[in-house]
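Below is the record:
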Amino acid sequence: MADPALLVIDVQRGFEDPAWGRRDNPDSEANIAALVAHWRDEGWPLVFVRHDSVEPGSVLRPDAPGNPLMEFLDGEHDLLVTKSVNSAFHGEPSLQAWLDGKGIDTVYICGMTTNHCCETTARVAGNLGYDMRFVIDATHTYDRPDHTGRVVAAEDLARATSASLHGEFGTVVQTADVTG
């Protein structure tokens, strides 16, 4: 059986922009760094995913200063997937082909943001039959308005992601469960 892969989703400088608003989980970057260090120590497959936005004015556009990965993600990785949609499984090169080619059937997901690209990637991973582990405290999100304009707190969005994913698409875990 192949070692599990860590998918580090969209940990990009653009998510430090204050325009995103109030966020939850100030420890997410430290938890992501701990996971990456653990994967490197174990010699397990490490996948970085970068969102190359096609939206005009986005801080995540390839030519924008917010596009590069955050500095703490320096060092080696096994694969870099670039995408312009919410799922890492819809990027280049093909994440599914790479995982399947390596015989990897278990993926751990962390990154930014909890309820967008991380959750979408997790749902697709579960639908494709991967044993998906979502490291909830190694993600963060931002307050967002709902369809009526009422603001939903970032913490509530993260709890909703946890409730939606756990037991349906995979297993929600904490960083300490993985690195401990």
